[in-house]
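fyi for ur records
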Amino acid sequence: MPTPKQDRHFSSGMAEKFARNIYGTAKGRLRLKILRERMLAELPLDKKGLKVLDAGGGLGQISCWLARKGHEVVLAEPAAEMLDYSAKRLARYKVATLNTSIQQLTEHLPASQQGFDLIVCHAVLEWLQEPKETLNQLLQHLAPQGHLSLMFFNADALFLANVLRGNWQRVLEKGLQGKGKGKRLTPISPLQPTEVIAWLETAGFEITATTGVRVFNDYLRLKLPPEATPARLVEIERRYCQQEPWWRMGRYILIHAKKI
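which gave:
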């Protein structure tokens, strides 16, 4: 009998790899910069004391940032290694932590703490075997008129990147997703923007903003001229990250939505 497929959680040294290879790189800093800028512009973060759930929040960068802004943050993360790696920083900013998956949130949250003003779910859905079903479970924890900040790995961007790299056999065989094994960081369930938007609208959400995160950065392959400075790239990313058709090319897609 075949072994059932599992969601991808990160342990066995992966916390350090995330800190070094994802958040400690120029592309990781660019991702965080665009994320924070759009969240500040599009979410009611100026209201102090929001009840926030950071679902699958990993090392807690966004959790700590929101806590510094005066919000009451719960970080739910299924990989204990991630929480242990960031424990001192999370404690310093008074971020409450739960070592649990989205699917088990209801039984781990106190009865009085089932609803949140803001749910953050960044770079999580693409590591799940059933992203749509799990997202619907997560949305049950959003209070009426609450806000959602959802970011996921873009399947269309994965397709384009592999064409540009010459991985044409994989493209033709449609075998681009990861297998969930070893320490490779290719998502097992990359998603298309149109399908995720449809899921949210069907669930009764108003889409308030769509953003491509790293619209151009990840496609740069050639040696660049001296005038192609990092600052100019950031400005280009900012200018086109919400314009058609460019935002749809983002390595990640950020959707902000409101429960109606």
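The chain has one domain: 14-259. thats all i got for now
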